[in-house]
Design goal:
The complex is a heterodimer. By secondary structure, chain A is α+β, with helices and mostly antiparallel strands. In chain A, α4 packs parallel to α8, α5 packs antiparallel against α8 and α8 runs parallel beside α10. The longest helix of chain A has 35 residues. Chain B contains 12 helices and 12 strands. By secondary structure, chain B is of the alpha+beta class. Chain B has 3 domains: 92 residues, no CATH class; 111 residues, Butyryl-CoA Dehydrogenase, subunit A, domain 2 (Beta Barrel), CATH 2.40.110.10; 139 residues, Butyryl-CoA Dehydrogenase, subunit A, domain 3. Classes of the chains: A alpha+beta, B alpha+beta.
């Protein structure tokens, strides 16, 4: 019995963290989010893909690394910790999962092979299935798709879009097809992209299994939720580390503020709230791979619980920094905003908890 | 990550399950005299508590790793088997082996630091439920700052003569023995002046006064010492080493205050209750606000349970770093349980406030009782605030509180 990340996972995770430390400093993140460094963002993306991030979950027979979701979870913690400006959850987790679980042999060969050699990139829009806002609807009929999908993940640099209708039918369209219009949305988190996609009678390659079963979209959503939770854990841990370090330096009333119990207890609360989140999220990833009966419920718990905890940490860690925490100079807001958006993507906590109740037939 | 225990352990689980089936409904003829005994529905055989202890020791379901010569099972220490036993007993609603401060705290301390003679004399009757212990640590002026305790022990004519007062002494009224901290070196620095003494409760000069707590059960006592005289050899460790000895046992207590299996069973019981309980004809589980809160508590319980699996894993696998995961268990476990029990009271509304033997009482009043009881556990064994000091100082490396002037 071993509960935790393996040596390989910790090693890989360390490599990703190291890469981000070296290549994606806060100054670089800042210039990327201000839209000034598209080239740098491309280089960071290439660097991470070279480390294997794009092919992590793709089976070896299609040229991927054939690793499991716990591996991706470990990596996601590092990406959140470094507020990495990379499309991971949609392009490299949900898209391959949907194809692995929902694609025909032809579709797997076609897409997974191209994904593993990085010749295609896929944005993912499942809002219709999770919960549609602003009266957006998607219709998929006779291999054509029409309608509008909001908050499509990772569409900005994508060659393809993976979209679903309200029933969980999933298919892929090429972003070059006529009738596809992509408008970027401006969310508070600018380290990743969120788009509105409008489609007018566009050719769609529907993943075969998704016509009759929701298994594939559920797997993709469960996986995406676990990965987002892990991203928020990474971001939260970085905020706690920053708050603790700052509290040991900053002096008021002739003492470092970290010697005041009010501050110490805030830090202890953050640490003791976050620590069980690691175990919950790893456990959820383990169930995703090994225990299908519990997998959906665990993914819901991971997503909703970590969202609540990380929201609280984003607030408290900022408060520990006092006025400086509120400034752009300190840059804590990049983590605050990352956590804020992770919370809502693929279902805000209340929606996910209702789903968790339904899964248990309550 | 591998959560399988393996075939050997699955066989062991089957064996335990069979045992639980055989003993379903067992109850005790001497419950009233034994502290902390949970009431179980008496549908099976009636035996004495010490017979139950002996049965469990014989099977290796209790005191597994305590050597046979001291009255234990004499097997290897096996955390996974302990865990299987705890979870199967809890699932089958079979009474676990007795706990209490003698078994959970004194026995491990004796095994680690006691003399051969002390081990032979005390461990066996303690494990068999024949010798019950209470813990004499806290004093009216020494609570969170335990090391400032003032109860005095003087060595006079080869005997310890003890004067002073202890408080919050659970189970003193049932106990034959007390292990206590006493200031024996008045000139030494605070922590270095304390010894760990063993006091028979029938010694003349020792007076017990019950201290009724908010649950209206006399869970605690005050214990007064007036020239209480005990033999010189009733000491664990050397003179002035009592603080280190006590820290060994406090570690055992913090681990034992929170059982994730019990919390999981409790949340499942809560779900059953919410499916049955109705307000204006609507099941509570169908009411959106209650439903939402239930799931958020369930998620916290799952996180707590997963965390404890991680801590378990770190005991099995050398080098796995779970420092903070282990440190937070007392804080998180007791606060979570208090929240869970309090939520159950809340959703039942006025009915949730019923107590003792009231008409309309639900589940023997256990929700309200445990809601209050867990407030006691949040405070006892190092308050939540003390836990936060420990986590911030030892876990996060934050500075200690500056010493107050003149102390």
């Amino acid at each position: 019995m071993y509960f935790g990340l393996s040596e390989d996972q910790i090693f890989f995770q360390g490599n990703v963290s190291k890469f981000l430390e070296d290549q994606a400093s806060l100054d670089i993140i800042r210039s990327i989010t201000e839209g000034d460094s598209l080239k740098l963002q491309g280089e960071i993306h290439s660097g991470l893909v070279n480390l294997g991030l794009g092919a992590l979950l793709i089976p070896e027979e299609f040229g991927g690394l054939g690793l499991d979701l716990l591996f991706a979870t470990a990596v996601s913690q590092s990406l959140g910790g470094g507020v990495a400006p990379i499309a991971f959850t949609g392009s490299y987790v949900m898209a391959p999962l949907a194809i692995i679980f929902g694609g025909s042999q032809r579709q797997k060969e076609k897409y997974l092979t191209q994904m593993s050699n990085n010749s295609i990139r896929i944005g993912v829009g499942f809002s219709q299935y999770i919960g549609a806002r602003d009266n957006s609807t998607i219709e998929i009929n006779n291999n054509k798709i029409s309608g509008r999908s909001l908050f499509v993940l990772d569409a900005k640099e994508a060659s393809h879009l993976m979209l679903s209708d309200a029933n969980g039918v999933v298919g892929l369209v090429s972003t070059n097809s006529s009738g596809v219009e992509i408008v970027e949305l401006t969310a508070v988190d600018k380290t990743r992209s969120y788009s509105e996609v409008t489609l007018n009678n566009v050719d769609i390659d529907v993943l075969e299994q998704t016509m009759s079963s929701k298994d594939a979209i559920n797997k993709a959503v469960d996986g995406g939720r676990i990965i987002l939770a892990a991203d928020s854990i990474g971001a939260s841990q970085r905020l706690i580390d920053k708050a603790v370090a700052y509290s040991k330096e900053r002096k008021q009333f002739g003492r470092v503020i970290g010697s005041f119990q009010a501050v110490k207890h805030m830090c202890a609360e953050m640490a003791s709230d976050l620590e069980p989140c690691y175990a919950l999220v790893w456990h959820a990833a383990y169930c995703f791979n090994n225990s299908p009966d519990e997998a959906r419920l665990m993914a819901c718990h991971a997503k909703s619980h970590v969202s609540e905890i990380s929201k609280m940490i984003a607030k408290k860690a900022t408060e520990v920094h006092g006025g400086m925490g509120f400034t752009d100079l300190m840059g804590l807001h990049y983590w605050f905003k990352r956590i804020g958006v992770n919370r809502h993507i693929l279902g805000a906590p209340e929606l996910v908890r209702e789903e968790a109740a339904n899964i248990q037939n309550f | 990550m591998d959560l399988n225990y393996g075939a050997e352990y699955e066989d062991f689980r089957k064996e335990v399950r069979k045992f639980c089936k055989e003993w379903k409904g067992v109850n005790f003829k001497d419950s009233a005299k034994i502290p902390m005994t949970q009431a179980f529905k008496a549908t099976g055989v009636t035996i004495s508590r010490s017979e139950w202890q002996s049965t469990l020791i014989e099977k290796g379901y209790f005191a597994r790793s305590v050597p046979k010569e001291y009255g234990g099972f004499g097997g290897d220490s096996d955390i996974i088997k302990n865990r299987i036993i705890a979870s199967e007993f809890s699932n089958a609603n079979i009474p676990a082996a007795m706990g209490g401060q003698g078994i959970d705290m004194l026995v491990p301390t004796l095994l680690e630091l006691g003399t051969e003679e002390q081990k032979k004399r005390y461990i066996k009757p303690t494990l068999h439920g024949e010798m019950i212990w209470c813990q004499g640590y806290s004093e009216p002026s020494a609570g969170s700052d335990l090391a400032s305790l003032q109860t005095k022990g003087e060595l006079i004519n080869d005997s310890w003569v003890i004067n002073g007062q202890k408080i919050w002494t659970s189970t003193a009224q049932y106990s034959q023995m007390m292990f206590c901290l006493v200031r024996t070196e008045p000139d030494a620095q605070k922590h270095a002046g304390i010894s760990y003494l063993l006091v028979p409760m029938d010694t003349p000069g020792l007076e017990i006064r019950p201290l009724v707590d908010m649950t209206l059960k006399a869970g605690f006592n005050e214990v007064f010492f007036t020239d209480v005289t005990i033999p010189k050899e009733n000491i664990i460790g050397k003179r002035g080493e009592g603080w280190a000895v006590a820290n060994a046992t406090l570690g055992h207590e913090r681990g034992s205050l929170t059982d994730p299996n019990a919390t999981v069973n409790r949340v499942n019981f809560l779900i059953d209750r919410m499916k049955e309980e109705r307000l204006d004809g609507t099941r509570l589980i169908d009411m959106p606000v209650y439903r939402d809160k239930l799931i958020s508590i369930q998620a916290k319980v799952m996180a707590f349970q997963s965390n404890s699996l991680r801590v378990l894993s770190s005991k099995l696998n050398q080098g796995q770093d779970t420092k903070i995961a282990g440190m937070i268990q007392k804080l998180v476990g007791t606060e979570l349980r208090h929240e869970l029990e309090g939520f159950a009271v809340d959703i039942m509304g006025e009915v949730g406030t019923l107590y003792e033997d009231s008409p309309h009482l639900r589940d023997s009043g256990s929700w309200q009782f445990l809601y209050m009881y867990y407030l006691g556990l949040i405070i006892g064994g190092g308050t939540s605030q003390i836990q936060k000091n420990i986590i911030s100082e030892r876990g996060l490396g934050m500075p200690r509180e500056p010493k107050a002037q003149g102390v």
